[in-house]
Amino acid sequence: MTDDSNNLLNASREIAARSFNGYLMLLVILGSILWFGWAMTSVIPGGPNADFLGMGLSIAIFTFVSAGFYMLQPNQGVALTLFGAYKGTDRNEGLRWTWPWMGKAKVSLRANNLISEKIKVNDLRGNPIEMAAQVVWRVTDTAQALFDVDDYKAFVLAQIEAAVRTIGARYPYDDFTHQEVTLRGNHDQVGGELRLELMERLRVAGITVDECGFTHLAYAQEIAGAMLRRQQAEAVVAARKTLVEGAVGMVEMALEMLSAKNVVELDDERRAAMVSNLMVVLCGERDTQPVVNAGTLYS
Questions:
Q1: Mean pLDDT of 146-170
Q2: Where in this chain does the record put each Band domain (predicted)?
Q3: Rounded to the nearest 5°, which phi and psi values hold at 259?
Q4: pLDDT by residue (tens digit) across 108-136?
Q5: Of residues 71, 62, 69, the one with CA closest to residue 97
Q6: Residues 6+ positions from 205 with CB-CB distance below 8 Å
Q7: Residue 240: which of 248, 251, 250 has the closest Cα?
Q8: Radius of gyration of the chain (CA)
Q9: Which residues pair with 119 in a beta bridge?
């Protein structure tokens, strides 16, 4: 049996705790106060009607009941323990009451938004990049969060960093040919994989991830300048390729139309010269200056 299987078998599981409505117990408190007041009025120094027993019992009841109150706000839970043994989690909001000897540990069930620190990661091609993630998480199992990890908030921080490193090393930062899944070009897909990775890692702590994504993604400073020049060069090459493909198509179309309409008959040498001139005009970065030929075509 693997370690993961053992962890799942030994994992804590949240159960509902047995507790009482705190407002009903307030009536018991009020009754003990009234009893104490009645006992006080019956006390006659040295007389047979002194109710010291009633006074003592009312004080004991007041002290006992007062020690068992606790209050829960919406989306809060309290884990109850008896001498270290987990007895359940109460999620009923409002004023609650349980036995005074029960231990109480409150846990927030609200969504938490966390933005991690920027960390340096090597992508699939070994390029150092900087990454930071934004994660929305919440506790779903209070027993696992409190008893299966030492500090579930610190555990979340550590696992977010580990998951970001794992996903960052799984894909390249960028691919100019758009043939691969990249960190920069496929945010939704990579963010989805990051969420699945985090949910798997945080499952042991009873925590789920509602949303996550990258808030910072860039090349590390030591290679940022070089990679920028590389991207610019690739962009120039791609633009030139598109320009040449368009120019060749236009030249081909011009020659076909001239031949089809019998505008002019060109031998191979003049056809090559026209192709050269058209390519210069279409592919040049500067405006061309026309030259008027006042003689014959071959002069």
A1: 92
A2: 67-235
A3: -70, -40
A4: 999 999 998 998 888 888 888 889 999 99
A5: 69
A6: 144, 145, 148, 149, 152, 155, 156
A7: 248
A8: 39
A9: 131
Q: Which domains does the chain carry?
A: 10-105 (no CATH), 112-219 (3.30.479.30), 228-283 (no CATH)
Token representation of residue 99: 């036995």
Q: Which residues contact 202 (CB under 8 A, 6 or more apart)?
A: 137, 155, 156, 159, 208, 209
Both structure tokens of 278: 């058209």
The answer to whether 66 and 29 have CB atoms below 8 angstroms apart is yes
Q: pLDDT confidence of 1, banded at 50, 70, 90?
A: very low
Mean pLDDT of the 204-219 span: 90
Q: Rounded CA gap, 117 and 231, in Å?
A: 27
